[in-house]
Amino acid sequence: MKVGGIEQSSIESMVAQLRSIAAQTQDVGTGSALTGVSPIGSGAGAGPVNFGDVLKATLDQVNERQQAADKIGQQFAMGDDSVNISDVMIVGQKANISLQTAVQVRNRLVSAYQSIMSMTV
Predict the structure, then answer these.
(1) Residue spans per domain, the chain
(2) Would you name any one GO CC term (predicted)?
């Protein structure tokens, strides 16, 4: 069965891959992909979360993914036999998704800041 031009089995495969990656990146100690950040409603009492630290860690991760994509792309372009085109495309798309997510978060933060600044006290 096709959903929007994509086979159902392909969708299920992608969802399974995303769940697998999410499980791998999840920090065992806190139950969160970000170290020191408790899941919402966990009541774990991990203490206050420093927004600046979380933002910096996230931007560092986006930067690392961008650099990894550049590196593997250069390796492929130089004719490295250990790198195939599918690896290059996957790493590039992961880097792109990370960057787009960061841009959307930034847009939401700017919008929230503008809304707060326009409030009358």
Answers:
(1) 1-31, 49-121
(2) bacterial-type flagellum basal body
Return the ∠ at Cα 19 (arms to 15 and 20), rounded to 5°.
115
Within 10 angstroms of residue 11's Cβ, the number of other Cβ atoms is 14
Task: Report the alpha-carbon distance of residue 46 to residue 37 in Å, rounded.
Answer: 7
Largest CA distance in the chain: 64
pTM: 0.56
Enter the tokens of residue 71.
């590196």
Q: To the nearest whole number, what is the mean pLDDT of the chain?
A: 78
pLDDT at residue 71 tops 70: yes
Distance CA 108, CA 19 (A): 25
